[in-house]
Design a protein that fits this description.
Elements lengths: L1 H5 L4 E5 L12 E9 L2 E6 L5 E5 L4 E5 L11 E4 L14 E5 L4 E5 L3 E3 L4 E5 L12 E9 L2 E6 L4 E6 L4 E6 L9 E4 L14 E4 L4 E4 L4 E3 L4 E5 L12 E9 L2 E5 L6 E5 L4 E5 L8 H11 L2 H4 L5 E4 L14 E4 L4 E4 L4 E3 L4 E5 L12 E9 L2 E6 L5 E5 L4 E5 L11 E4 L14 E5 L4 E5 L3 E4 L49
Amino acid sequence: MTDQKLCAPSMLRIFGRSTGRENSDIVGEYIQIGAAHGRPVYRQQGSTTVIRYWPPQKRWVIDREGLRESDVCVAFAAESLDLPHPAYPHLIWSVWETTAQAHVSDTQVIAISAPGCVTIVGRDEGRENNFVNGQYSFSTVCHGRPTYFHSRGDLCIRYVKEEHCWIIAVLGQDSSCCIAYAEASTFEHPGHIELDWVFWEPVHGRFCLDPRTRAVVAPTTVRVIGRPLQAENARINGSYILAGIMEGRPAYVQPGTRNLIRYSCRTDRWLLDPDGLMEPSLASRLYYWIFRGDLNAAGERCAAFSDAGGSAHPGMSKLEWFVWESRCSRFLLDPQVRCTTAPLSIQVAGRAFSRENQFMNGEYLLAGTDLGRVFYQKLGTHTVIRFWPQRSRWLIDGMGLQRTDACSAFADCLPDSEFPGDVCSVWYVYESTRGCHFSDAAIAVFPTSGDDTMIQLDDFTISNSMCSSRLPDEAPKDLSTIRMPSILRQHGHYGA
């Protein structure tokens, strides 16, 4: 089963349980967290619910209580093919219904390997159909593959079974027409950097490969925090927006600056370059390196770096950053500096006002880093939410930052949890009458609305040295005037 484990997707999605129906909360994204009985285990983001394999009955089960040895579950899918993971659309799921006092088959429920969002980057401003750039969100399933809608609501990425390809199409147009396509190969969703996208070019009257355009599954915003304001290179702090793909990994730009976070294949590092978008352009330096073989000309300069260690993007708190110090002419580890996907503010809600420690309710702002993770502070108070690495927990502490696990409330999380909303247990709150922490399933922690993670890619101008440029403020007003011939009729061009 080792080979099967290796081919299991790192994430999957449960789709199709209608909102309002009992147990509709099983719908969502699940991340692989380990293995049991030779099969992968997946945990739903922000909850204790897992998908695991139960050998005695040869079932994949969805269990609210997490990883345990039991056949009790909220839903299950029986299978007899010894499947390595549950992300197969042909599996039929049965969901518990109280009125029937049994698990009832729901053919609308599907498990597929699909991220929640896919982002298209790199289509240049001066080229036809550059409005394809932007973020696409998971919407539905068609032919056993995910379909994504653009944030503007005018485009979709979907799978064409007959041609075995992914296409970008205008909603409302002929279903056989497309703006661009990519051969699906073995990929179960379109968010793979390896996919080559081919665009309809009216000037040439045919589809043409655009090697700069890529689809990626990566956060649209990461932020660097923790560098003291009085310290050298404090300007690295701030939020960075996904701007393109460089050397096979996502690159991020800080709006209004020349700051750039990019990947270096040569050193296997994430580099933070405060002048990454200055002339000579980064692209020019890289081309010089490729054609002349001069590693120094490529420009590995930076103000800070972190060893990538196989990370798909830089927004992971586990990465440690070394920052340039002129006084000693070398890079020094700054344990306070972290690059994270954590939101700027979060809300704690659900603790009844009649109960002890109800003070934890309220809004918290990102305040810095502590023990390798971000921490949040409630406005006008000493109350913080901090990470306790020894037990992999988020703690709500009315006494501020302490070097102890004493707290008013806690919730368990995985070691790579980025913020307190991503936990794998309910919150436990201290109650003096009981003399211990007691579970309170009503408590929830979530990002506040209006957080800058919702910034769209077209909110700023990206240097021409990047793989993508500024997006138009809106799609063409009359999309019907764009020539979008059917890929099914483009013999000699499509699939050539």
